[in-house]
Automatic annotation (TrEMBL):
Transmembrane segments: none annotated. GO terms for molecular function: double-stranded DNA binding; RNA binding. InterPro entries: Csn12-like (IPR045114), PCI_dom (IPR000717). GO terms for cellular component: transcription export complex 2. GO terms for biological process: poly(A)+ mRNA export from nucleus; post-transcriptional tethering of RNA polymerase II gene DNA at nuclear periphery; transcription elongation by RNA polymerase II. Residues 317-393 form the PCI domain. This is PCI domain-containing protein. It holds the Pfam family PCI.
Length: 423
C-alpha cells in the first residue's frame, strides 16, 4: 500500500492492521514510540477517533477480501489510546501514567494466532516506555517539585507495569499460549532487575515449574531467559550453573551490532564468575574490559592487596552491575590461590607450618603487615569449611606450633565454582 504523505499515520496503521500486514504496522508503531511522529501532537483527539471509526466501517474496508480482512473494534481503541498516551508523554505530563496503563491493557485481545506478533511488540515496549516517560518528565521539569514528581512516577510506573504483565499472564494461561508465557515472565524479571528486587525476579522463573516451557518458546525469549537465570544464580553463589546459562547466551548472540552489544553485556558478568571455575580471560578480552585487568591478575596471583585496589578503584561499576558482594567472594578465591602457592613453594608437602602462610599473607597484604597466627588460622579454617582446601589444622601443644595437614590427593579443589557457600 502506498500512503499519501499528508495522510494521518494512524489511518495508515489501521489499514495495515485490517489487512493483516503486521510487519508494516509495527514499523509505523516504532516511529510513533520513538517520537518521530510529532505531527500527531496537533491532532484533535475527538475528531481523530471519529475518523478512525468511520474508516473502519467504510465501503473500502467492507470490500476487502474476507480471508484477509481482520477488522476489529479493538484496533480503533488501541490507536486512540496510543494517541492519548503519545500526547501526554511528549508533554511530560503526570497524566501519562493513566494512559500508559490503558494503552497496554487494551492489547489483551491481541492474544490470538493472527495478532500475537503485535502483542509481542507491545509487550516488549512496556519496560522501554516506562523509563522513557521518566526521562521526558525529568527533561521537561522546571523546578525541584517537578523532578520529585518524575521520580515518584517511576515507582508508580513499575507497579503499573507489573500489574499489566500479571493481567496479561493470566490471559496467556487461560488461552494456554505456550509461546508467550516465557516472554511475559522475562519482562517481569527485567522490571525487577531494574528495581534491584532480585528475590522477586527469581520468583518469576516459570521454567522451574514447567520443564517443557523453554523448548516451546521462541529462540529470542530462550536467550533472554538464560541471561536473567544466570544473573539470579550469581546471587545464589551457584557460579558453575550461572556460567553455563551465560555461556549459552554468548554462543547464541548473532554477529550483528545488537548481538555484539548483547555479548558485551553478558561478558561483564561471565568474566568474574568464570574465575571461580578456573577460567581467566585472555588478553583480547582484558583489552575490551580494562576494569577486570588488575582484578583477574590479582586473583590468579593470590595478591590480596591488588584485589582490594581493583575493588576500590571500580567500586561504582561493581555497584551498578550488582557485583559488589561477588567481589568480596573473590577475596576467598584469592586467599585459596595464595595458599596454593605456599603449597607449591613447599614442594607440595602434606604438612606445612602456618608461619609459612603468615609470611605469604604479610607480603600479599601490606595493609595488614603483621597478621597473627589466629588470623591465619581463621582464614584457612574458612577455606577448609568451604571445601577449597582439603586438610585440617593441628596444634603441637609441647612446642606451641600450628600447622596444617593437607590431603595427599588434590588438597586444592579443581573447580572452586562448586563452593558450598550456603553450608
Amino acid at each position: 500500500m502506498i500512503a499519501k504523505k499528508s495522510e494521518n499515520i494512524l489511518l495508515i496503521i489501521l489499514r495495515f492492521f485490517r489487512e493483516g500486514k503486521c510487519f508494516e504496522a509495527m514499523s509505523c508503531l516504532k516511529r510513533i514510540f520513538s517520537g518521530k511522529e510529532q505531527s500527531l501532537l496537533g491532532l484533535d483527539l475527538v475528531q481523530t477517533l471519529k475518523q478512525l471509526r468511520l474508516e473502519n466501517e467504510s465501503e473500502a474496508c467492507k470490500k476487502l477480501n474476507e480471508n484477509t480482512r481482520q477488522s476489529h473494534p479493538g484496533w480503533v481503541e488501541l490507536l486512540c489510546s496510543l494517541l492519548q498516551y503519545y500526547m501526554e508523554r511528549e508533554r511530560g505530563s503526570a497524566q501519562v501514567i493513566e494512559h500508559f496503563e490503558n494503552l497496554f491493557k487494551n492489547s489483551k485481545w491481541l492474544l490470538d494466532e493472527q495478532r500475537h506478533e503485535i502483542y509481542q511488540f507491545l509487550c516488549k515496549q512496556v519496560v522501554t516506555e516506562q523509563y522513557k516517560i521518566v526521562q521526558i518528565m525529568k527533561r521537561k521539569a522546571k523546578d525541584s517539585e517537578a523532578v520529585k514528581e518524575a521520580s515518584h512516577a517511576q515507582e508508580k510506573l513499575e507497579s503499573k507495569s507489573l500489574q499489566i504483565f500479571q493481567e496479561m499472564g493470566r490471559e496467556v494461561n487461560i488461552k494456554n499460549m505456550q509461546k508467550l508465557k516465557l516472554l511475559n515472565a522475562n519482562q517481569q524479571m527485567k522490571i525487577y532487575f531494574k528495581a534491584f528486587k532480585f528475590d522477586s525476579a527469581a520468583a518469576c522463573d516459570k521454567v522451574e515449574k514447567e520443564q517443557n516451557l523453554l523448548l516451546a518458546s521462541p529462540k529470542q525469549d530462550q536467550i533472554t531467559y538464560h541471561y536473567y537465570k544466570g544473573r539470579i544464580l550469581i546471587f545464589d553463589s551457584k557460579f558453575y550453573e550461572a556460567s553455563q546459562h551465560l555461556t549459552q547466551v554468548l554462543q547464541e548472540c548473532p554477529r550483528t551490532q545488537k548481538g555484539l552489544s548483547c555479548a558485551r553485556q553478558v561478558l561483564k558478568y561471565l568474566i568474574p564468575i568464570n574465575m571461580f571455575i578456573g577460567r581467566y580471560p585472555n588478553k583480547e578480552l582484558i583489552d575490551q574490559f580494562k576494569e577486570y585487568e588488575l582484578l583477574c591478575t590479582s586473583v590468579r596471583q593470590g595478591n590480596i592487596s591488588g584485589l582490594q585496589e581493583a575493588i576500590d578503584k571500580y567500586r561504582s561499576i561493581w555497584i551498578k552491575r550488582s557485583l559488589l558482594i561477588l567481589m568480596d567472594q573473590l577475596k576467598v578465591l584469592c586467599y585459596r590461590n595464595l595458599c596454593r602457592k605456599v603449597w607449591l613453594i613447599n614442594q607440595q608437602a602434606n604438612k606445612i607450618h602456618l608461619e609459612q602462610f603468615q609470611k605469604a599473607f604479610r607480603i600479599s597484604h601490606p595493609a595488614n603487615s603483621n597478621p597473627t597466627i589466629s588470623e591465619v588460622c581463621c582464614i584457612i579454617a574458612n577455606l577448609i569449611y568451604l571445601e577449597l582446601i582439603r586438610g585440617h589444622i593441628y596444634l603441637n601443644n609441647e612446642k606451641n606450633i600450628y600447622a596444617i595437614t593437607l590431603s595427599p590427593q588434590q588438597p586444592f579443589k579443581d573447580k572452586p565454582g562448586e563452593i558450598k557457600w550456603q553450608q
